[in-house]
């Protein structure tokens, strides 16, 4: 009888889905059955695959017209689903719980997806929490320059623990590790690098890849790119609602946000300019691509990622307001020279996927061979 696994995936952004897909594929290759529970951006990602999936509500950030995170609007938008989640009530909660119970999973894995975390506790099923957010609850965070930043970090840490509950195993995936807290029993791993990326060979053609989720940033960045004509700019963004932000120029090329195309261009570029999401930073570092990152305003996780990137030496960070022509020219001057010769200096030990798979299988073996309550690793 094949082992059943429920895999919950947070729907804010594409990093959760990208990371989860690789682990899911490794589990499928081992003969496990996996059913995905996801919403938001993640469900659109998985609908393009043939994997079994269930669409569920997703907690989302809300932004203003300038692309800045609005905490009050975010709280209001998520209030009703959050109430149902924490009270264990409501039509959506009951539906998700019944569908999970019908699957009879041996283990529930969650990438920061709160419904699956809470239901795992209710139905007494071992829970593995794999995400980047736990990196900031399990490691010693650098002292912040302002009290307001420190308060936001503490709120972020509290909300992470609140949404993930008490997993049997915490696995924190990050491109750079701060020192682990002495009492933490979490497993810290590098980014989850998927098979498609591992098979690519890095070259250095005369283009820079630009990726951002919020197209509002285009109004500031594209005029700067248009003035630097000795570089080909390849822009990955969704301009469906902001087509007026596009500037027509022979050295600027636009792409829809599509995984295969993005990885192909990333492998061939001289550098990457992007928001400070963990997964995309990890993939660029894996390919030895220099990075200029700007955290999304007021998104604490990305601001901490920017600090980690600067400490790692793999890139530089600026706020979106401070990126100007001088900053871009300085970044360009430090890029590797153009070369069509393949470079295979991938950071093999940097990939955390095999370590994650081994730990999941260890927990599954324990669950199958014991009638006792699973050991809490954290």
Describe the structure.
This protein is α/β, with parallel strands linked by helices and 378 residues long. The chain has 2 domains: 4-192 and 352-369, Glycogen Phosphorylase B (Rossmann fold), CATH 3.40.50.2000; 196-347, Glycogen Phosphorylase B (Rossmann fold). Helices cover 41% and strands 18% of the residues. The protein contains 14 helices and 15 strands. The strands form 3 sheets. The protein has a 7-stranded parallel β-sheet, with helices on both faces. Helix 9 links the parallel strand 9 (207-211) and strand 10 (232-236). Helix 1 (15-29) crosses helix 14 (353-369). The longest helix has 18 residues, at 147-164. It is globular. The relative contact order is 0.14. The model is unreliable at 371-378 (pLDDT under 50).
Walk me through the topology.
Elements: E1 4-9, H1 15-29, E2 33-38, H2 40-47, E3 53-55, H3 71-87, H4 91-103, E4 107-111, H5 114-122, E5 127-131, H6 135-138, H7 147-164, E6 169-173, E7 187-189, H8 195-198, E8 202-204, E9 207-211, H9 218-227, E10 232-236, E11 252-255, H10 259-268, E12 271-275, H11 278-286, E13 291-294, H12 300-312, E14 315-317, H13 325-333, E15 339-343, H14 353-369
Parallel strand pairs: 1-2, 1-4, 2-3, 4-5, 5-6, 6-7, 9-10, 9-12, 10-11, 12-13, 13-14
Antiparallel strand pairs: 8-15
Helix pairs in contact: 1-2, 1-14
């Amino acid at each position: 009888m094949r082992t059943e696994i429920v895999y919950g995936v947070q729907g804010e952004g594409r990093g959760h889905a990208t990371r989860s897909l690789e682990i899911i594929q490794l589990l499928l290759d081992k003969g496990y059955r996996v059913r995905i529970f996801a919403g938001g951006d993640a469900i659109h990602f998985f609908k393009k695959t043939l994997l079994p999936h269930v669409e569920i509500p997703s907690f989302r950030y809300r932004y203003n017209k300038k692309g800045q995170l609005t905490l009050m609007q975010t709280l209001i938008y998520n209030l009703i689903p959050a109430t149902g989640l924490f009270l264990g009530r409501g039509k959506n909660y009951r539906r998700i719980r019944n569908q999970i119970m019908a699957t009879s999973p041996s283990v529930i894995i969650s990438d920061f997806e709160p419904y699956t975390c809470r239901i795992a506790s209710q139905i007494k099923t071992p829970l593995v929490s794999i995400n980047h957010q736990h990196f900031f609850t399990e490691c010693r965070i650098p002292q912040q320059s302002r009290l307001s930043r420190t308060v936001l970090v503490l709120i972020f840490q509290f909300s992470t623990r609140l949404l993930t509950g008490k997993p049997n195993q915490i696995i924190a995936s990050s491109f750079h590790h701060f020192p682990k807290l002495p009492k933490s029993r979490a497993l810290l791993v590098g980014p989850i690098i998927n098979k498609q990326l591992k098979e690519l060979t890095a070259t250095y053609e005369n283009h820079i890849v630009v990726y951002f989720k919020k197209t509002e940033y285009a109004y500031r960045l594209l005029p700067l790119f248009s003035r630097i004509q000795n570089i080909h700019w390849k822009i990955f963004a969704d301009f469906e609602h902001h087509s007026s932000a596009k500037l027509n120029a022979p050295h600027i090329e636009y792409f829809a946000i599509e995984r295969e195309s993005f990885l192909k261009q990333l492998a061939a570029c001289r550098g990457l300019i992007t928001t400070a999401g963990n997964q995309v930073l990890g993939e660029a570092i894996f390919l030895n691509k220099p990075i200029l990152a700007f955290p999304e305003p007021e998104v604490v996780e990305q601001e901490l990622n920017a600090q980690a990137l600067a400490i790692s030496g793999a890139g530089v960070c600026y706020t979106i307001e401070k990126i100007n022509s001088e900053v871009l020219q300085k970044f360009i001057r430090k890029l590797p020279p153009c070369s069509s010769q393949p470079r295979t200096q991938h950071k093999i030990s940097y990939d955390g996927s095999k370590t994650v798979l081994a730990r999941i299988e260890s927990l599954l073996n324990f669950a199958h061979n014991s009638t006792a309550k699973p050991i809490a690793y954290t």
